[in-house]
Amino acid sequence: MSENSSATPGFDDLLEANEAFAANFALGGFDGIAQRGVALITCMDSRIDPLGMLGLSPGDAKIFRNPGGRVTAAALEALVLGVHLLNVNRILIVPHTKCAMTQMSEAELREVITEKAGVDASWIGFHVVPDQEAALKADVAAVKSHPLIPESVAVGGFLYNVDTGTLDRRV
Question: How far apart (Å, rounded) are the C-alpha atoms in residues 100 and 4?
């Protein structure tokens, strides 16, 4: 293990796993473009395997993850860069079933975070998703209407089922 491992308590197991990963690392040398022309916006939920669910491999796609899998300003920035610099010509927006961001109102979520953090969280926006279908339609429309994303780029909205692993095209 490296000398720095003692400086990062709580990470020893991950650093050990990284050493094993790096010992057989065969993914070097990629040029950074999306080899299959895919960009994916999805949730940060750990039940989602973004590459696996689409039959892709490292280097095939650009992936942007955030709570709820929403098309935020940062996600749009990533998509514009992907389209113009990284070979992206297909964009999938993929929220999922049983998403925590659909379970509470913004006020309820702020209350929970305030209680757990012991610090007032009323000032932060968590961007809950009260209507996942409407949000997905709005997100697809936001991408399709963005002035820096050409009409030639295919954009689709899908729902990932965390219990079956299936994608259902919704938009």
Answer: 36
